[in-house]
Write a structure and sequence with these properties.
Elements (H helix, E strand, L loop, with lengths): L1 H8 L11 H22 L6 H23 L14
């Protein structure tokens, strides 16, 4: 059980090993979008499109911020001679 919690906490860690609030908000928004789509598909509830597209925007921004955080520490190589910039 202890290894499960260690594995699960890895979802919220950034490159330095500390907790990332950006990832927590990203997973929260993805969960809400999933809930809204499943609820709309299984019941006769009408999907609130303003809320849906707002959450999709939040997911896209969260993915962009988390991805840029990952690539921030990678070296950039010059294509001509292979030197790092």
């Amino acid at each position: 059980m202890k290894t499960f919690f260690k594995w699960f906490s890895g979802f919220f860690e950034d490159q330095k090993g500390s907790a990332s609030s950006k990832r927590a908000v990203l997973y929260w928004a993805m969960g809400l979008v999933t809930y809204m789509v499943v609820k709309n598909a299984t019941t006769e509830a009408i999907l609130n499109m303003e809320l849906f597209w707002g959450l999709i925007g939040l997911v896209v921004v969260g993915l962009g911020m988390s991805t840029s955080e990952f690539f921030k520490n990678l070296p950039i190589k010059n294509n001509k001679n292979g030197d790092e910039v």
